[in-house]
Predict the 3D structure of the following.
Amino acid sequence: MNAHDASPGTDHGSPTLSPLGYPTNLFAGKETFEGVNETIGSVVLRDRQPRPWWIGFIIAFMLLMVLFLAISWLLIRGVGIWGINIPVAWGYAIVNFVWWIGIAHAGTFISAILLLMFQHWRTAINRFSEAMTLFAIACAGMFPLLHLGRPWVFYWILPYPDTMKMWPQFRSPLVWDVFAVGTYFTVSLLFWYLGLVPDLATVRDRARKKWQKIFYGVLALGWRNSAAHWQRHQIAYLLLAALATPLVLSVHSVVSLDFSVAQLPGWHSTIFPPYFVAGAIYSGFAMVITIVIPVRKIYRLENLITLRHFNNMANVMLVTGLIVAYGYFIEAFMSWYSGDIFDQYMMTNRVLGPYGWIFWLLMLVNVVIPQALWSARVRRNLVALFLVALSINLGMWLERFVIIITSLHRDFVPSSWGMFFPTIWDWATLFGSIGLFLTLLFLFIRFLPMIAISETRELVAEPQKAMTL
Amino acid sequence: MRAVQNNGRARPQGAPDGSARRPYHSSDEFPPGVSEWPNDLSRRDFLRLSAATVALAGFGACTKQPVEKIVPYVKETPEIVPGKPLYFSSATTFNGYAQGIIVKSREGRPIKIEGNPDHPASLGATTIWAQADLLDLYDPDRAQAVMRGENISTWNDFLRDLDVVLQAQQTGAGAGIRVLTEPFRSPTLSRQLQMLLQKFPQAKTHTWSPIAPNESQHTYDFSKAKVIVALDSDFLYMHPAALRHAHDFASTRRITENQMMSRLYVAEPTPTVTGSNADHRIAVAARDIRAIAEAIAQNGRVAPALDAWVRAGTQDLLANRGASVVIAGETQPPVVHDLVAKINEQLGNFGSTIINSPAGPTNHVDSLGQLVEEMKSGGVDLLVILAGNPVYNVPADIDFEGALKKVKLSVHHTLHANETSHLCHWLIPAAHFLESWSDGCAFDGSISIVQPLIQPLYANVSVHEVVGALIERPVRSAYEIVRETWQSRNPTPHFEDDWRRALSDGVFAAETSEPSSSLAGSVEQIANRKSQIEDSVEVLFRPDPSVLDGRYANNGWLQELPRPFTKLTWENAALISPALAAREKIDNGDVIELEFRGRKIKAPIWVQAGQAENSVTLHLGYGRTEVGRIGRHAGFNAYALRTSDALWFGDGMTIRKTGEKHSFAMTQQHHEMEGRDFLRTGTLAEFLAEPKRIAKAEEEPARDETLYEPNEYEHRGYAWGMVIDLGTCIGCNACTIACQAENNIPVVGKYQVARGREMHWIRVDTYSSGKREKPRFEHQPVPCMHCEHAPCELVCPVGATVHDNEGLNLQVYNRCIGTRYCSNNCPYKVRRFNFLELNNNLSPTEKLVKNPEVTVRCRGVMEKCTYCIQRINAARANAELEDRQIRDGEIIPACAQVCPSEAIVFGNIHDPNSRVSKLKRSPLNYGMLAELNTRPRTTYLAKMRNPNEALVISEL
């Protein structure tokens, strides 16, 4: 931990620039509106990108190519290239889907709910986490389509005017999923884009090259910074925040119904909606911390993203983590209390069966290790926090593995019991989706302002808000 | 083009008369001089020639294509209506014994084999092999052309070669001619061989089959048997009359007002289908069977360790004189059969439960041994091998392969090119029984004429034509030869009528002999041949439950059919008892080295509950080297250990752990019921005390326990339902393979089975309960339950699985997008998913086997049992044309039709008088997992056993 991390304003030198060109201390010197515009806006307009960006981008891009390879082979051969079978008809695709959807929860939570609650500390990370949300939904949304036996007719799941007068079957939770995820993606995209518009205009005004002028000009939608614009922008922004807030709760609730509605022991449980939402926020914050800690370090954003941010995020993780742990406990309790032999066997098998080691690993990484967050020293130690966040990322993925695969592999009739073994294509798709996520994130850093310029200007104008950081 | 080399052996690829046969002359295309550059060619000449070349090249496009006119039916063949099937009766054979079949033909191609209800060996059912024979017909790996060594030749070339030898043999009265057949019961073939022996008195015929019993069996009537004691006999499965036995046995297992259940005692070394149906089964080494037979013969007095079983069984037998059967397995030595015959005679069973007696034992090994000796001495000039594969399957101590090389001219007539044809001078591709005329004789002597349904697909020749070629010129067609046999026996004017009736009925009776017992000696003498009980490990050689002796090794349906107990597919394993496995510290998949009489093989083991402690079962028929694509690299060759003195079992095998591991592909990995009661069983005594307690059907939820309309699928028309009687299901798997044939179910291969992606729509689950050394086996066929509250329908996002108003749970392939949610929510896991495109690289003949009435499913869609909806709709069309209701029994799904014990009954449950309604009113009726409120339309009758009170306590 170095002195930069203590609080803003401790470094009294002239503004130093990070390799990306962001000032390491926005509020140190005599920062003006123009200064903010210059320092943040010029980053995306520069031709040459620094080495750390290139290294990260190339690695991410290679993983993305792995994904393209895996998808191509999948479309050529069919879902049989994965390890799924009967009885385990859902495998990594659905595990990954639920995992990514969970990750997508932090962005909206940070942006919308914290905005409505006037938590100004969100300013430093909101744009970033909103982008993360969008990219995580993109990753998540890909899986239900790819996992279809015939992905080319995915649109049959949508209610569209069909000459055969066929409609989706609305009793199926998969149809609800489409609406829930689709709505969430749309609202998140609008919310993110609306916040970007004033910044895009700033970048447009500073652009020198023709393509940049056109590119940012089109995206800025003719923003002229007028008071009328600002008034309507702020109203729309708040409205969208209000719209997005219930979605944080609804999306993962609906996703959890995919399981709750089925009668499979291990899925058929009423606790799933709240338990999934808590898990989603848990994993979302873990992913934000996992990404922000290295980004902050590499781009020297220590003064913008402070230890207080991490402390707050760690507290959210601790709370949601305890809800998730409670969910695990109640699941076990209810299966015993129900007196249902299928449910009881499901729990025994989950704990002691062939996939029992995954359950115990899950307990370790998702329940035991996060208890370290009770300690303020851990919450403020970025190395420790990073490791805990990684552990939770793994844990939340394992949780979905346990729910989906160990429930499916042994259900009612023992003759049908089987095992699921992932193939290389299962892994390629999982890591490939991480590649897609990171590639989009790097492109975002390169072409769009990673920190909200207009909101930073607000902080310059009203330093008391900044001091609440 | 050159014929493609395959394991050193030229094989015809594609059409036999196509490119493969035409010699390739590299010079044909370029006449001499064309490629040489003339010295005096000037620039002008060059240009002129170039122009001419280009112009001529253009003319090439004007090549006239051959005219191939297609002509529609001007006058339709009266019997062929497109879209309407035709049915022909014929017969298939098992170990030489005929079983009557009816073959369904669509637009001139056979697409399904069913049993002939009028045939005594079938009664409408078929074996798994009869079902699979259809696939063999269309097997692209079949022998397709007459082959001379490595080269494709012709039938006429073969006849020329043959004539030279036959001419030379005229002088020695055919002393150098030998014919090796498999056991056969074809009157025409035996007449032809007689004719051959008349023409060449010194010629000899020999018989060899690795799985044909030396002892021919009696004919039994199990429908009259109240007590059956089976000593190492799989009479319900591995027997020429198995279908009849299963039918008769099942009739004694149903409880009716005037009939109680029969009781079956089985002593056997390895679990068999018969053993799994026993009320009392003990696992004993094959060598100890004789001691048991002796003990029974002496009224249960001399009893080794198994006294309770023997005493109880003997008492039961004595209490049911004339209504009992003691049956010894075909693998048991003559002494046991003699003992058993004596016992049956004492019990007065001859004439009541035992109708017919055998023709007398034949010893195949001696016959084969003689032949091989003669071959080695160089005395065989012409060896004609009719079917079979002796190079592969003779006992390891008989060097058939070496002897075959000394034969001057060897001819192999075979359906598939195999290890033997590889070493023979000539390969004559055999016509499939669906392609040629023949005849056959069933276990009880009834005769069937085998009539062809299709022209030979390739240059195939009937066995009668091959033998005919040895006798006469010109060689007459099989039709003429077979017809002549029967005309000579019936030279009356109404022969033509009788012939037509025989063809249409598929069976006619022949002379039967009186029952008698043939004893080798008195009981005392037999008892003097004392058996020695040793502690050494015993090896058992058994035909594989699917591929038999290897003849079906290239049949995908059979390869993928799970073996009755292990549920293994695509290979064999050394079956080992749990006790022996514990002693040797080995487990499933460990590869062991087996040494027997100085020969060694390596085999992966499978620990099988119910296996006799010191017996290791090796299934024959695997480890084939010269075989088509399906059978390649499958299993190990157990023939390598088999010797002529231990054809079926022998002592003194040693096993050694190698440390290698092998992975199997099985369709069921868990054989315990985990205390769940989806498979309900009880005893006759429990049933009599309280009939409804066994099925516990009253525990099902009330009809209105649903959020939706409770009578959503109630409709006044038909309501299709099914009842499966677990009490009579013997677990033979015939339903699985019949369904595969009827519903175009693809074969997925070993790797995909290991991945859990087999496609069978109806599976037969096998569970073992009780102690591992003394398990009880239970079979449960599981098709789609057609739940009225189907969990699968609720979760499909596109409505691809829906209910129709007759209660069928339909799968709309066209609408399915493949989310597989339905399978996840199906508690029975009967849905099957096309994870990959499984119908892609089908050869043209493999496409012919598909049933045109059933959609061939593409990749990415879910499928499952439809209750054979195509058969429902065919019956509906007929009924509507005749303006009537569909009659009970008019619709028989493929699984029900093939079932030898009639354990599956289908029909309209709204009709209170239908068979299915009556069965559903049985106190034994229950719905599997009905407590989930699925309201299954397929229900089960609980399995009943009839244990002997005296033994129940000792078995606890």
Observations:
- Chain A touches chain B through 51 residues (CB under 8 Å).
- Chain A has one domain: 3-467.
- The domain at 3-467 of chain A is CATH 1.20.1630.10 (Formate dehydrogenase/DMSO reductase fold).
- The longest helix of chain A spans residues 173-206.
